[in-house]
Amino acid sequence: MKLKFFDPREAAKTLKATAHKNGKLGFSADAAKKMELAAGKGARIAFDEENPEDKTLYVIISSMAMEDTFKIIKAGEYFYLNARSLFEELDLDYKNDNIVYDISEVLIDGRPIYKFTKRAGVKKVQLSGSL
Which of 3, 62, 93, 104 has a CB 3.0–4.6 Å from the CB of 42, allowing a cystine? Predict the structure, then answer.
């Protein structure tokens, strides 16, 4: 038997991306570090065309932004990409729904790819000033 102990520092990492009302897809600090995001890099985003009901996205980070990638942008310590066109193509109501993707790394055809699994969404609620 070989025991492998869990490292709570690794388990606590939040690898996620969140859709914002302005159409940006923002990355948590841990996700940006794991994915080695940097300004000027690009993200190629795909879906499983054999299963259009599956809302999972697959992302490959390229060393530079190109015509077929979403450009990675840095604002302070925060990384994001403009994904409005992607959200609209996927028919996602990013303005009213809370859209969060959990990110994991998977091997597809022997190549590491980031898998973005959409969390079950909860509607964003506008709070009024009085109760």
Answer: 62
